[in-house]
Amino acid sequence: MTGDPTKSSPFSDGLAWTDVKSDLKSGGRWPMKRMNEAELRAFLVGQTLFAFEPETFRNVAKVTYGADGTCSAVFADETRDSGRFGISGDVYWTRYSRFRQGETHRFFLVTVADDIAQAFHGDGRRAFLQSPHAKLDRSLLEFFTVSRKQ
Questions:
Q1: Does 122 fall in a domain?
Q2: Res. 1: pLDDT tops 80
Q3: N or C: which terminus of the chain carries fewer CB neighbours within 10 A?
Q4: Cβ-count burial of 72 within 10 angstroms (0-12 exposed, 13-18 middle, 19+ buried)?
């Protein structure tokens, strides 16, 4: 899916960046905020984060973002890949050798809770949840499930 994230682009779970953005402006139920460059650097650079499917919280990868701009991933099936990443403003990019066909992809992060961020592709599509914790609290999953259905 491509498009402008300022226009409605519903996902399979009913959550679009425009929904979150609109809710943020109105002071609604989402405890989220798009990370600025300093927050993005603090969250990613030199960190090892776990990536989770946003609907199921299934752990799909463990990703290390090196201070030297390298990144490496170990996926749930134990396959490995490495590549590069960078940050420009409030957006970061990754390019792995094989993952995502070795293409460069851009993302922004939205703070969901302490130590948890929801990644969005540059076009507004939802990507993985990221956290330094190997498991996420089930009550957070219930919050998202209830909030999205309201």
A1: yes
A2: no
A3: C
A4: middle
Residue 35 lies in a domain: yes
Q: Are 108 and 32 in contact (CB under 8 A)?
A: no
- Percent of the chain scoring above 70 in pLDDT: 71
Distance of alpha carbon 2 from the chain centroid: 17
Three-state SS string over the chain comes to CCCCCCCCCCCCCCCCHHHHHHHHHHCCCCCCEECCHHHHHHHHCCEEEEEECCCCCCEEEEEEECCCCEEEEEECCCCEEEEEEEEECCEEEEEECCHHHHCCEEEEEEEEECCEEEEEECCCCEEEEEECCCCCCHHHHHHHHHHHHC
Give the CATH number of the domain where residue 82 resides. Answer: 2.40.128.640
More confident residue, 113 or 14: 113
**Structural domain tally of the chain?**
1
Bridge partners, 106 (sequence order):
93
pLDDT tens digit sequence for 73-129:
999 999 999 999 999 999 999 999 998 888 899 999 999 887 899 999 988 889 999
